[in-house]
Amino acid sequence: MPVDYSEIFCPYFDEKIILTDERVEHIGGQHPDLLPQYRRFIDEVIQKPDSVRRSRRMPNGYLFTRWCPEVQNGKYIVVVIVSEASRKWVITSYISRKLPQGETIWTKD
């Protein structure tokens, strides 16, 4: 049975990021404040983040963040991407009122 997924081009990595239906289901179940209402913001954060941070929990994890004034009167959307040599994929995403911890490795000009 094939895995259903979408691919979102990520300028930071200069390649496509995989978002599986299973991960969308996970995000919706764990973070119903984000999905399905704000689904489009996951793509926007991947394509145009305000900052990229290294995950403190996973050595190969990256936290893409973007301030979204239209989400709950202004919140951050965080997309967590796992990077391996052969592929990169979204592991989770959530809404936050503050930036996550982790070393900042890139910020938008």
Would you give an account of this structure?
By secondary structure, this protein is α+β, with helices and mostly antiparallel strands. The protein has one domain (5-102). Helices cover 17% and strands 42% of the residues. It has helices spanning 21-30, 39-47; strands spanning 5-10, 15-20, 51-54, 61-68, 75-83, 88-96, 104-107. Strand 3 (51-54) and strand 4 (61-68) form a beta hairpin.
Structural class: alpha+beta
The whole-number mean of residue pLDDT values reads 95
Oligomer: single chain
Spatial extent as radius of gyration: 13 Å
- How are the strands ordered across the major sheet? 6-5-4-3-7
Strand element count = 7
Structure in a nutshell:
The chain has two helices and seven strands, in the order E-E-H-H-E-E-E-E-E. The chain has helices at 21-30, 39-47; strands at residues 5-10, 15-20, 51-54, 61-68, 75-83, 88-96, 104-107.
Keywords:
single chain, 109 residues, alpha+beta, five-stranded antiparallel sheet, globular
